[in-house]
Amino acid sequence: MRINKFLAESGVASRRGADKLIEEGRVKLNGKTLTAVGCEIDPERDTITVDGKKIKPLNRYTYIMFNKPKGCVTTFDDSKDKGRIEGEKPENKRKTVYDYLKDINKRLVPVGRLDYDSEGLLLFTNDGDMVYKLTHPANQIPKTYQVTIEGHPSQSDIEKLRNGVVLDDGVKTGHAIVTLTGQDDKYSKLEITIFEGKNREIRRMLQAVGYNVTLLRRKAIGDLKLGGLARGTYRYLTDKEIKYLKKL
Fold first, then answer.
1. What is the dihedral of CA 120, 121, 125, 131, to 10 degrees?
2. 46 catalytically annotated
């Protein structure tokens, strides 16, 4: 078994996160620091540690749906978050999603991220294969958002969003499903479904066509919907929901 798959299935991090831990020299195999991310291991015979702590494989997976509120970051420790507000002192840590999951004693990692000012559906699990499957761009998992913007987008701008726009880093987004759902004198409401999940993708998409986002809420991953789950609370997924995600 590859070391990154073992670490992911043990709930330490996603596969990509496990590779990063190895690159940082934080993973040891039988007492020796690993340098090769593609290393093969025998979970029954080898001893793996991360930051000096022995890692044991988990026998049971946990799946949680969390309604992330605005004003918290999707990270375990904000002191390591490179996205800290400019000028903020290191000791002034922002609230993290894990502050809402204090009574969950299993090692759960988020399935993707929502930024500090975004809210809505966020999944947590210790199933590394599930994390990989739902976050890898090649799998084209649809994620649907409710978005409020300043101003009134033209039909031309909506078509641009649907067909893909060039972001600030020069990368063009893939196709999206974009529907105008409401307007008033100052704001417009959109429902947007994307299939890639680039960093802050929807905010950057709308910025590319000249609009500022004032509210961004993820409402669904595939057909799995947030429903009436209150902000800042979580629930365990049902067996039916877990089976659905595995079949996506």
1. -110
2. no
Cα angle: 171, vertex 177, 181; to 5 degrees: 125
Total length of the chain: 248
Give me the amino acid identity at 78: D
For 113-138, how does the pLDDT look when each residue is reduced to its tens digit (9 = 90+)?
Answer: 999 999 999 999 988 889 989 998 88
The model carries a pTM of 0.73
Catalytic residue among 46, 115, 117, 129: 115
- The two beta strands, 109-110 and 63-68, are unpaired
Residue 212 has pLDDT above 50, yes or no: yes
Start-to-end CA distance of the chain, whole Å, equals 24
Helix count and strand count (H, E) for the chain: 6, 13
Average pLDDT for residues 187-208, to the nearest whole number? 95
Count Cβ atoms within 10 A of the Cβ of residue 55 and give its class: 0-12 exposed, 13-18 middle, 19 or more buried. Answer: middle
Edge to edge, the sheet with strand 27-29 lists 32-33, 27-29, 48-50, 53-54
> What string of DSSP letters covers 141-201?
--EEEEEEEES---HHHHHHHHH--B-TTSPBP---EEEEEEE-SSEEEEEEEESS--TTH
